[in-house]
Amino acid sequence: MNLSRSTLAINGGSPIRTKGWKDNWSTGVEEKVAVCRVLDSGYLSMFEGSHVPDPPFSFYGGPEVQNLEREWCDYYEVDHAVSMNSATSGLYAAIGALEIGYGDEVIVSPYTMTACAMAPLIYGAIPVFADVEEATGCLDASSIRACLTEKTRAILVVHQFGIPADMDEITKIARENNLKVIEDCAQAHGAIYKGRSVGTIGDIGVFSLNVNKTIQSGEGGVCTTNDKDVAYRLSLIRNHGEAVVGPAEYQNIVNIAGFNFRLTEIQAAIAREQLKKLGTLNKHRLELVEALSERLAKISFLTVPSGRRDCLSTYYVYPLLFEESSVGVSRSTFVSAVNGEGALFYEGYVRPLYLQPVYQQKVLFKHGYPFSAIENQGSVADYREGLCRTAETLHSLKMIINEHIRFPHTLEDIDELAMCVEKVADNTL
After folding, report:
1. Quick check: 121 and 127 in contact, CB under 8 A?
2. Do 149 and 163 contact (CB within 8 A), yes or no?
3. Which residues are paired to 81 by β-bridges?
4. Is pLDDT above 90 for 255?
5. Residue 251 pLDDT greater than 80, yes or no
6. Does a structural domain hold residue 68?
7. pLDDT tens digits, residue range 214-223?
8. Has this prediction a pTM greater than 0.70?
9. CATH number of the domain residue 76 falls in
10. Whole-angstrom distance, CA of residue 11 vs CA of residue 21
11. CB-based burial label for 377 (10 Å; 0-12, 13-18, 19+)
12. In-domain check, residue 376
């Protein structure tokens, strides 16, 4: 079969859509007012390096940072929130706060952003890749069990595409094996797992405020936890570990590698206004997802996302599964034809992380560290091609991604997006 009809834009026909697509633009007057408030104060950042009082500066940041953290706690019904300058920093800090390092293994997803696997490596621990569920892209609990060893210390679970992972099974595995659970919620603001907000179920949740996320401050992140000691360690890691030079709460902490992971007052002020909009932005996003799924579900060789039962998915992007055997054209050919009509779909999402050179060659730092470290000898660090077959199949054959279910796109935009797909599907011979 092929796509040969002259009505298709790739064959000289007229495209469905000729105008471009909108950027993720969720800021407005409220954020401008917030930024001006900070500028008028004269204090763009207000972190102090130690607990020694130096008003108005503080080891915990200025009023915008601290108010953001309090408001984040209120929204997510969690005891502690610690802001960071990125979710990547948050993941690194989470590994450090849980005291994971050389001789340890962390089970991670291969089908996500590289920072998830890099975070353990930075501290000398070894990432072990478990496979994902085809329907969600989230970690598969049965694959996690198959990856367990005596070295396993934690599971870093990603709520992929804004779809909650199977937290009942994952937390059960963690309890049975005395493991920590880190939730990567970068794509899942406001997602709910069986009545609980993602990011509040494991030991630490990590959220992103990157410009591409549902809510944003340009760059930024927030860690959540119900453990007071973990929250304090996160705060230390964020701020150079320098609280130990003053009257710190814990004088015996000597193993904190501190960094500058601090959020500025301007970023925090913007994030506060964005948090107020999260419910509205998610409601809008889900309306667009529902409208698009209603249309595309009628196409036999496409599978629209359905989330997880008894959960609320908030869809950072729109993940669509393509079945080549049912239509007789390749995914690449289909996507090219759809994009020729004015749509913008992507193939595959990300290449499974273990296929990157750092894992294939097992070298990050000099002399092959941390893989070559004595403590890591005997690790199950298996990074062969074919390791996670579902993740590889999603990347190479099945997954199609669209980003236009986010504000400020409208139902009219979704109508044209659906028409692009429908036209190609109808003209597939």
Report:
1. yes
2. no
3. 224
4. no
5. no
6. yes
7. 999 999 999 9
8. yes
9. 3.40.640.10
10. 23
11. exposed
12. no
DSSP state of 123: T
Give residue 162's region: left, alpha or beta (phi > 0; psi -120 to 50): left
Q: Could you say which DSSP state residue 397 is in? A: I
What's residue 253's pLDDT?
57
Tens digits of residue pLDDT in 102-115: 999 999 999 999 99
Task: Render 3-52 in DSSP notation, one character per residue.
Answer: ---TTSGGGT---S--S---------HHHHHHHHHHHHHT-S--B-SSSS
Give the domain extent around 133. 29-275
175 belongs to a structural domain: yes
Q: Is the peptide bond before 56 cis (omega within 30 degrees of 0)?
A: yes
- Domain total of the chain: 1
Say if residues 240 and 12 touch (Cβ distance below 8 Å). Answer: no
Q: Assign 150 a pLDDT band (cuts: 50, 70, 90).
A: very high
Say if residues 333 and 392 touch (Cβ distance below 8 Å).
no
Q: Which residue has 């069990």 as its token pair?
A: 145
Give a yes or no: residue 104 inside a domain.
Answer: yes
Q: What one-character-per-residue DSSP string does 189-249 give?
A: TT-EETTEETTSSSSEEEEE--TTSSS-SSS-EEEEES-HHHHHHHHHHHBTTGGGGSS-S
Q: Is the pLDDT of residue 274 over 70?
A: yes
Task: Give dist(CA 91, CA 93) in Å, integer.
Answer: 5
Q: How many other CB atoms are there within 10 angstroms of residue 301's CB atom?
A: 16
Give the sheet arrangement for strand 221-225, strand by strand.
80-84, 221-225, 204-208, 180-184, 152-158, 105-108, 126-129
Look up residue 414 and give its amino acid. I
CA dist 24 and 3 (Å) reads 32
pLDDT digits (tens, 9 = 90+) for 288-342: 999 999 999 999 999 999 999 999 999 999 999 999 999 989 999 999 999 999 9
Bridging pattern class, strands 192-193 and 221-225: unpaired
Structure confidence by residue, pLDDT tens digits, 87-137: 999 999 999 999 999 999 999 999 999 999 999 999 999 999 999 999 999
